[in-house]
Amino acid sequence: MYIGNVGVFVKDLKGARQFFESYFGAKFLKSYNEPENNYYSDILELDKGAWIELMTKPEIVDAPKDPDRSGLAHICIKADTRAQLDNIVARFKQDGYKIQYEPSNPTGIGEVRAVTFEDIVVEVNYTPAD
To answer: How confident is the model at residue 106 (pLDDT cuts 50, 70, 90)?
Structure first.
């Protein structure tokens, strides 16, 4: 078994899509819309086949989200190289996202967790192949 997708409700569907396309090279697969229910979604795919479904509808409440809340803690995306991870860390900082941590060690292993677009907590990590 495997996880087919992760669904995330957002206020700004276009902005969320641009975030995942820009940072992680996500590719737009399709939209799934139910206009009669005011429900709209974009389904994106990452390089290795994982899907992220971004969803919106007018009644979505964008209340402040504590990163230490219960429920889904974060979305983890695996970087292919340490340079790719380092680039994402630099972009998170440049774009003003709150970095929760970014530990690394001399073996090349590294990880960052940041509060990003619409307070979505994203973890990006890299582990070199054995």
So the answer is: low
Q: Closest Cα to residue 23, out of 85, 101, 72, 104?
A: 85
pLDDT tens, residue by residue, 63-78: 777 777 787 888 999 9
Helix (H) or strand (E) holding 95: none
Cα distances (Å, whole numbers) of residue 57 to 36, 41, 101, 114 = 11, 9, 32, 25
Domains belonging to the chain, first-starting first, are: 1-61 (3.10.180.10), 63-130 (3.10.180.10)
Report whether 68 contacts 115 (CB < 8 A).
Answer: no
Residues 6+ apart with CB under 8 A from 76: 122, 123, 124, 125
Tell me the three state secondary structure of residue 47. Answer: coil
Please name the residues in contact with 26: beta carbons below 8 A apart, sequence gap of 6 or more.
Answer: 17, 20, 44, 45, 46, 52
Q: How far apart are CA 28 and CA 6, in angstroms?
A: 15
